[in-house]
Amino acid sequence: MNISARSSISRFKYFLLVIGLLQLLGFASSSFAGMRWSARAIDPSLIGAISSDSQLLRETLLGVQPKILTDKLKKGGLVDLSDKQLRDELEAWAAKRKADVGDTEIDLDKAWHGIHYLLTGSSEPNSTLASKVIMGGEDIGPDLGYGPAQLLKPDDVKAIAKLLEETTPDILQKRFAPKEMTRVGVYPDVIWERDGDEALRYVLDYYEKLVAFYRLAAERGQAVIFAIS
Questions:
Q1: 139 with 128: CB under 8 angstroms?
Q2: Contact (Cβ atoms closer than 8 angstroms) between residue 160 and residue 129
Q3: Which residues contact 213 (CB under 8 A, 6 or more apart)?
Q4: Do residues 194 and 19 touch, judged by C-beta distance below 8 A?
């Protein structure tokens, strides 16, 4: 097997690992496959260490991979989440991680691009503060699937928190344009016209969680790192 093939298999194993872990953390639905946006609020004193240590960055966003799972992957074995012992250990690990990270972590499932569009009126990033909420910041670390993680420093976090508090769900609802969102390719583009108001509720539910996340991070003087993976 050549190096490229081995590398592809390794990336695929890691993809399966992330799927399993996010499901155990309660972030993933049965329709996991696709691009997801997740973020972590951190103390600014950690920025230097995370910037220079890609493993620490990955662990901060995704957690330290449980040994029982990494051992199986190293041996080339299949990860069978129906195995009770394996699942019990992973669920215990997931519960501990949720207790450790608390409200410093958020996952937007597949609602992230819809939120970005309703905030900015565009499917693409731009130079506005609203664009920084989901698709801005400074590159930090290696590619995590759809580019490197992004860093927002405390001043940006405070400005974003203020913007989000002022941008109510009612304002965003008036900007909801299913046909246009489908036309410009807002991900996942199949849902906007098909699901209509249900798709809007899905996005706004996650938006309210995002507002609370940035509010707490701003109050604590934290930085935020996020990635699409």
A1: no
A2: yes
A3: 39, 41, 103, 106
A4: no
Q: What is the pTM of this model?
A: 0.75
Residue with tokens 């399966």: 16
Give the CATH H-level superfamily of domain 29-61+103-228: YfbM-like super family (3.40.1760.10)
The CA distance from 226 to 229, in Å, is: 10
User: Which two tokens mark 104?
Assistant: 């410093």
Q: Give φ, ψ of 50 to 5 degrees.
A: -70, -35
What is each CA distance from 115 to 7, 111, 195, in whole angstroms? 34, 6, 16
Phi first, then psi, for residue 139 (nearest 5°) are -60, 135
**The two structure tokens encoding residue 63:** 């957690």
Domain spans of the chain? 29-61+103-228
pLDDT in tens, 39-84: 999 999 999 999 899 888 988 887 666 666 566 655 665 566 667 7
